[in-house]
Amino acid sequence: MLTEESYQTQYLDLNSIKELPESHTWTSLQDDCTDCLSNESESLPIIDLNDPDVLALVRHACETWGVLQVKNHGVSLRLLEDMEAATTKLFSLPIEQKLKVSLSSSNDISGYRLPKISPFFPKFMWREGFTIFGSPVEHAVKLWPQDYKPFCDLVEEYGKEMKNLAERLMWLMLKSLGITEEDINWSSLGGAAIQLNSYPVCPDPDRAMGLAEHTDSSLLTILYQNNTTGLQIFREGTGWLTVQPHTGVLVVNIGDLMHILSNGLYPSVLHRALVNRKQQRISVAYIYRPPANVLISPLPKLVDHYHLCLFRPITWTEYLELKSKHFTNTLSLIRISGSPNVVS
Ligand SMILES: C=C1C[C@]23C[C@H]1CC[C@H]2[C@@]12CCC[C@@](C)(C(=O)O1)[C@H]2[C@@H]3C(=O)O
Ligand SMILES: O=C(O)CCC(=O)C(=O)O
Ligand SMILES: [Fe+2]
């Protein structure tokens, strides 16, 4: 079992290893690396949030891709680049320093740790992650005893800006489905986790995995990626597609809870991150979630005789718990009807 404890006893520092260890060698990768980059018609749309047609564009992207890219989103390039620099700085600390902010308690999701999905895969991933949930102060003090404030201030600013954008995006998604403000009473109360990811240069990238395939448990996730390719999304009938980074453009994934709210109309996108031998890759995910104890269920306006209610109500807290036990099966476990659009 790939647990946090077994990993830490090895003190593996990915930033200094010169050969891919057995524990990080993925054997089934070779044939599944289809990269359909050259196929122009398959490229993920970049939506200008000031476009007068924004609702239709969002709806189309959400329905067909489960993910979109946005520009003119109002978050300054300066803030995105500062966050990237802070992330690079954090992961370049000595491994002993980083381990001081890991494993605070098994219930705590904050800190330097393996991805939650690690136990579902046979090998470790070529990635380091730091999750921020609530205030980062306690951890920042351990990482930079003399100089923790700039990091905390930056995280706070990033959190504020991303919350505005996440709410705006959520409303674009919901309005594109005909949902109005009266239909939802918790929308401004949502919270988030901020996930910092680093994928160090890798001696054998074809046999390593940065972050294995998963869907996010969020309503939506806003992802910043530095100028290094690696993010891929899975497209039915096509395979894995690389999402090329563009300066200032943010990737927005539909999460499992939006899939539930939309009564299955918007799919939560399956995605993963690959690694390379030349450049460290950095990404920052803003994982936007509803208030912890609000019951999330398909919106009544999206349920009728032709569109049966597909999922039972569930809170974010319960959803995360179920997902940490059942991973990819979680959505089907809370499903209550058969296939969409079928009248019983
Ligand atoms: C708030 C969340 C959402 C989590 C779990 C918890 C904290 C960390 C998040 C991630 C971040 C990395 C990918 C993922 C799949 C993982 O392993 O940890 C995410 C997961 C999810 O979206 O399910
Ligand atoms: O690094 C990436 O591009 C993907 C990160 C991701 O999927 C996540 O943090 O949930
Ligand atoms: Fe993700």
UniProtKB/TrEMBL annotation:
GO BP annotations, alphabetical order: gibberellin biosynthetic process
Gene source species: Daucus carota
This protein's encoding gene: Dc3h1
EC numbers, comma separated: 1.14.11.15
Residues annotated as domain Fe2OG dioxygenase: 185-290
Keyword line: Dioxygenase, Iron, Metal-binding, Oxidoreductase
The protein's name: gibberellin 3beta-dioxygenase
Family: Belongs to the iron/ascorbate-dependent oxidoreductase family. GA3OX subfamily.
Record flagged with keyword Oxidoreductase: yes
Matching InterPro entries: DIOX_N, IPNS-like_FE2OG_OXY, IPNS-like_sf, Iron_ascorbate_oxido_reductase, Oxoglu/Fe-dep_dioxygenase_dom
Signal peptide as annotated in the record: none
Superkingdom: Eukaryota
Pathway involvement of the protein, from the record: Plant hormone biosynthesis; gibberellin biosynthesis; Hormone biosynthesis
Top EC class of this enzyme: oxidoreductase
GO molecular function: gibberellin 3-beta-dioxygenase activity; metal ion binding
UniProt cross-references to Gene3D superfamilies, sorted A to Z: B-lactam Antibiotic, Isopenicillin N Synthase, Chain
Cofactor(s) needed: L-ascorbate
